């Protein structure tokens, strides 16, 4: 079953159109950005929320970036595996991904020619869909195939919202 953060934080009722931006120093390719677009679309399909990319990182509601190790928010990343990403509950909107993971998109490594074991591959879209759930105010679910279930097998792709995720987000929005 789905859960919320303590105090049930969520984006205010008069704010249904959310913006997002990528950290400028990350220099992300369109292939990477499209993965986030697809992940946001899954949540906007089941709510009245919309998500629009804007150029200004400063003024975006949701700020997305890849960082390595200590990146000055008190929650340092830990290199390959362990913590993959973290997102802060509304209305903070910070969405950070560990730049040292072996991220894959549709089964292919992001870093061209990067050689690594399938055991450490992490599917970017799966993590994005999960973290956006947190950004919207969802905690973890006890339903094993829900997006918000707190574990994901190595190399596993899990991107489809389940009923449990949909009921949870629809209770908030
Ligand atoms: N990051 C954790 C997560 O997003 C951070 C976290 C730990 C957390 N406890 C929490 C967030 C309690 C909110 C509430 O869950 S993670 C997965 C999954 C992670 C894990 O790097 O461990 C995904 C990030 F579900 F696969 F295990 C994304 Cl999809
Ligand atoms: Ca890590
Ligand atoms: Zn961070
Ligand atoms: Zn989580």
Task: Describe the protein in words.
The model has no long low-confidence stretch (mean pLDDT 93). A hairpin with a 2-residue loop joins strand 6 and strand 7 (108-109). The chain has a 5-stranded mixed beta sheet, with helices on one face. The protein has a single domain, classed as Collagenase (Catalytic Domain) (3-Layer(aba) Sandwich), CATH 3.40.390.10. It has helices at residues 30-44, 124-136, 163-172; strands spanning 17-22, 50-53, 62-67, 85-87, 94-98, 102-105, 108-109, 121-123. Helix 1 crosses helix 2 (124-136). It has 173 residues and is of the alpha/beta class. It binds ligand TQI, calcium ion (CA) and zinc ion (2 copies). Calcium ion (CA) is lined by residues 77-84, 98, 101. Residues 83-86, 126-127, 130-131, 134, 139-140, 150-152 line the site of ligand TQI.
Question: Which features does this protein show?
Answer:
alpha/beta, Collagenase (Catalytic Domain), globular, binds ligand TQI, binds calcium ion
Summarize the structure.
The chain is α/β, with parallel strands linked by helices and 173 residues long. The protein has a single domain (17-168), classed as Collagenase (Catalytic Domain), CATH 3.40.390.10.
Question: What are the SSEs and their pairings?
Answer:
Layout: E1 17-22, H1 30-44, E2 50-53, E3 62-67, E4 85-87, E5 94-98, E6 102-105, E7 108-109, E8 121-123, H2 124-136, H3 163-172
Parallel strand pairs: 1-2, 1-3, 3-5, 6-8
Antiparallel strand pairs: 4-5, 6-7
Helix pairs in contact: 1-2
Bound molecules: ligand TQI, calcium ion and zinc ion (ZN) (2 copies).
Domain Peptidase metallopeptidase: 7-173
Family: Belongs to the peptidase M10A family. Matrix metalloproteinases (MMPs) subfamily.
Keywords: Hydrolase, Metal-binding, Metalloprotease, Protease, Signal, Zinc
